Amino acid sequence: MTASPSTSSGDKARDVEKGTSEAHLLNTTISSLSWSSISVTTTKSSPSEILHNSTGIVRAGEILAIMGPSGSGKTTLLNILARRPLPSSLSFPSTTPEICLNGSPIPLSEFESISRFVEQDDALIGSLTVRETLSFASKLASRQNGRERLARIESLLDSFGLQDQADTLVGTAIRKGISGGQKRRLGVASQLITAPKVLFLDEPTSGLDAVGSWEVVRYLKGVARRNNLIVIASIHQPSTTTFNLFDKLLLLSHGKTHYFGPVGEVTSHYEGLGERWPVHVNPAEVLLELVNTDFADDKTEARRRLEERQQAWEGSDRARKLTADVASQPKGEVVERGTAADKKPSLPSTVVTLVHRSFVKSYRDVVAYGIRLAMYTGLAIMMGTVWLRLPATQESIIPLTNSIFYGSAFLSFMAVAYCPAYLEDYMQFIKEKRNGLYGATEMILSNFLIGTPYLFLISVVFSVISYWLSNFQPTAKAFFTWVLWLFLDLLAAEGLVVLITSIFPSFVISLALVAFANGLWMSVDGFMVPPTSLNVFWKYVFHYWDYQKYVFENMMINEFSERVYACATTESGCQCMWQTDLADQCLIRGQGVLDQYGYKPGYMGKDIGIMMGIIVGYRVAAWIVLKLKK
């Protein structure tokens, strides 16, 4: 059957689009990346050398493997080449080395705009599809029209063999997604869609089998060749087929270079040193055995031979030629001045993109808010049926007080369930911040905006169920005041989670510290020990900036300030547990209950202002923490 003209022309348009859409990856400005004499030492009282006099050059279209045994300095060198800050435990013994593009050093801001780094444990959002992951990465990196962005996405899906998985979820803890090798390819593609000219990868084959490792490196090599990119990867122990895909090899041991040059010439280099090269053996395994002394029977002899090999490299013609090549690099212009489409998106645009991404995550990943909504709904049902239809009598006053404390305190305490969801966002933020996509301001704003509607929904659902079942003050004003304070309580509790988890991005540590902090706030909020009896240390150091204090106090005022309760009647007459001006009517005015806590109505506006200050304070503190994160 002959295709209709419209269909045929549409197919041709798509073919043309795919054929040209990889043009954004093409590198026409960077011819080489070079470095020389990089040395790094520890900052201990007796410094030890991590890297010694490392020199190298990688040209456009080449893919370099940095290889060596554990502790050889691979990751340290890779981070230095990517212009990442050194940890405080390491330092340069002299001046900071220059990393040159086209023979010239360039400012860090310009380097970040043309380079990307793929982490060893690359953070991907499991509740997004493969196509969505690339789409959001593109929106965060640059301004483009929809047609151009779609063309780039489809091109990368084709280039990395992910077209069949384009609409498959990456995978979450409770829902299986794409394979490990596909995740690695997606991690690389999500960086390439931002059109870098230089790509760094830390152990891209770690955790993959031989086939998975080979396919990741094969796709990398193909993209680098087609688009003239510079690719540098640290790698541990590749298979023979994977090893042979690399163009160049930098072999390290104890921070010193043992070989730098074409992969195909490493065998002849060691044979020239008198080493017997076994046949039918993975060359990467042989090289690692030659430069590893950790498992030698005679470590002294092994270190001596290792030092001889390293000195032989330093005196070799290859080493002298490498030094000359680096020194003779012609200096040239580096960064092309991009069009408007290549400019970074504005702060509002970035925040909108992050909110959109978080929204997709929140309704697909039950860990984000679904589990919490279920937990709070269950708690509301439990509370409403335990404190069921309490009558307006003095016997209900203590149970009502307990219920107010329990509801507000445990809603706050259960905010710890947000820790794992925020940790995933945090790891994504650190990766994207290091790659120059956005900063702490966008992260904090988007996190607050996406969480606020869900927290309000939780407050309403919890209140609708528990408030009327327990028979709190049955007025619309009192109900909506209750909802308001629950909402502020949850906003403050989530702000506390964001702050503590940003400081300690470990699930166990953040969980323990958030639980401890909530335990502290419960102890000094005024329920366990009334403010009139709380000792001065806890009162003035913690009580007044305990957000649970303001929630409990205003919920108590909401319930008791405008309500009366019937006293018990016995044969001997009326017996009131609290003596108020209504005792002669056998009633208790609710204010009498508040007086024992020192609570008085009329300060709700002030207390809301204080709560807003605490909520904003937690977010600003988290912003400062994220701003300082490297």
What descriptors fit this protein?
single chain, 630 residues, alpha/beta, Rossmann fold, 2 domains, six-stranded mixed beta sheet, five-stranded antiparallel beta sheet, 15 strands, 53% helix, 12% strand, disordered N terminus, nucleotide-binding
Q: Could you walk me through the main structural features you see in this protein, from its secondary elements to its overall organization?
A:
The chain has helices at 5-20, 74-81, 108-114, 130-141, 146-159, 180-192, 210-227, 240-243, 266-272, 283-290, 299-314, 317-327, 347-364, 366-386, 397-413, 419-434, 440-470, 476-503, 507-524, 536-541, 547-560, 591-595, 604-628; strands spanning 32-42, 49-59, 63-67, 90-91, 99-101, 104-105, 115-118, 198-202, 230-235, 248-253, 256-262, 564-566, 568-570, 573-575, 587-589. By secondary structure, it is of the alpha/beta class. It folds into two domains: 14-325, P-loop containing nucleotide triphosphate hydrolases (Rossmann fold, 3-Layer(aba) Sandwich); 347-560 and 600-628, no CATH class. The strands form four sheets. Strands 7-8-9-3-10-11 form a six-stranded mixed beta sheet, with helices on both faces. Strands 1, 2, 4, 5 and 6 form a five-stranded antiparallel beta sheet that branches. The protein has a two-stranded antiparallel ribbon with strand order 12-15. Helix 4 packs parallel to helix 6 (180-192) and helix 18 packs antiparallel against helix 21 (547-560). It is elongated, with a radius of gyration of 32 Å.
Summarize the model shown.
It is a multi-pass membrane protein. This is ABC transporter G family member 15. This protein has helices at residues 5-20, 74-81, 108-114, 130-141, 146-159, 180-192, 210-227, 240-243, 266-272, 283-290, 299-314, 317-327, 347-364, 366-386, 397-413, 419-434, 440-470, 476-503, 507-524, 536-541, 547-560, 591-595, 604-628; strands at residues 32-42, 49-59, 63-67, 90-91, 99-101, 104-105, 115-118, 198-202, 230-235, 248-253, 256-262, 564-566, 568-570, 573-575, 587-589.
